[in-house]
């Protein structure tokens, strides 16, 4: 069974930084596009960032562009999300997601991801 385990969430003040990590197991990681989504209370789960399985392309939601950076380490089956200049509106549960060979045209589409982690809470105080 595929497992995705997120870590690194927590409480941070506005303007601060956090680094989320997702460890994947029981899948051929190098052929999986990896994504981060988030869900705030009362809102739908939204796309945050993704990195193509080839590792060559990264994508960001408009609200996080220029502040968040996604990276992957195929040797350790991990994907990370470096979050900087955090704002209170970034407060949400952040989920790691995986999809095999997911292409660029649907890389931001939540329903195209096959596997999900349990989520990690990020709270940004004002």
Question: How would you explain this protein's 3D organization?
Answer:
With 126 residues, the chain is mostly beta strands. It has strands at 3-7, 10-13, 18-25, 32-39, 46-51, 58-60, 68-73, 78-83, 92-100, 115-116, 120-125. The strands form two sheets. Strands 2, 4, 5, 6, 9, 10 and 11 form a seven-stranded mixed β-sheet that branches. The chain is globular.
Topology pattern, helix = H, strand = E: EEEEEEEEEEE
Tell me roughly what share of residues is in helical segments.
under 10%
Instruction: Tell me, rounded to a whole number, the average pLDDT.
Output: 96
Low-confidence stretches: none
Principal-axis shape equals: globular
Which features would summarize this protein structure in a list?
126 residues, mainly beta, seven-stranded mixed β-sheet, 0% helix, globular
How are the secondary structure elements laid out?
Elements lengths: L2 E5 L2 E4 L4 E8 L6 E8 L6 E6 L6 E3 L7 E6 L4 E6 L8 E9 L14 E2 L3 E6 L1
Parallel strand pairs: 2-11
Antiparallel strand pairs: 1-3, 3-8, 4-5, 4-9, 5-6, 7-8, 9-10, 9-11
